[in-house]
Fold:
Amino acid sequence: MIDAEELAARLAAVQGRIARAAARAGRDVGSVSLLAVTKTWPAEVVRAAYDLGLRDFGENYAGELADKAEALLHLEGLRWHFIGHLQRNKARSVAAVAAEVQSVDSVRLAEALGARAAEQGRTLGAWVQVNVGGEAQKSGCSPDEAAAVASAVASQPALRLAGLMTVPPHTDDPAGAAPYFAALVALRETLGGAARLPGLSMGMTHDLEVAVAAGATVVRVGSALFGVRAATA
Ligand SMILES: *Cc1c(COP(=O)(O)O)cnc(C)c1O
Structure:
């Protein structure tokens, strides 16, 4: 497991990458936030990142999120963001602890999440995940479905429509992601623009510079901070 000194160095490196990409794009570095993706890493790793000042953490699995949220309940200001594929029968446990769910990809999931959040007296930020590359194995709605999913989110009083999220197809050259990020930006324009969908969550370890250049407001970074994950089932 990563030690605190190594983590501090990696965090500085990632923050430097974001700052340089923002500067090249003529953007304010404060317009891009870093979501630290902690899937597969134990609660102590989240704690170490929190101690370095990080507050926003991304998790992909409902059970793992519930366990870590419970273990770290005492950490003031920590915000959990759910970024994995979410089954409706897990909506209750995610709605109990998450501040944001970035992976809303169907009308039925928006309805379930809104209902489960309302029951628990919580309001969640909800992002529409769009599969801009049309890859069969990836979650996310198709661009054609995004309007309906966004409307379903907007009609839930316990959900706040926060933006669009995507995971582009992998290309060895990070620049290969640019057309997919541009497609998400263009889709946002057709859905009401930044006034309705303020956030654009795109860019990971491999391609965050390309995403910042394209207008990302959130980059989701795991391995550049915490190391390479063991393969998960
Ligand atoms: C795992 C994951 C990330 C982080 O990926 P890295 O390449 O490790 O930075 C970002 N977004 C989603 C949706 C993920 O599942």
Remarks:
- Residues 148 and 229 are 35 Å apart (CA to CA).
- The pocket of pyridoxal-5'-phosphate is lined by residues 37, 39, 60, 83, 167, 204-206, 220-224 (CB under 6 Å).
- Strands lie at 33-37, 56-59, 79-82, 100-104, 124-129, 159-165, 199-201, 218-221.
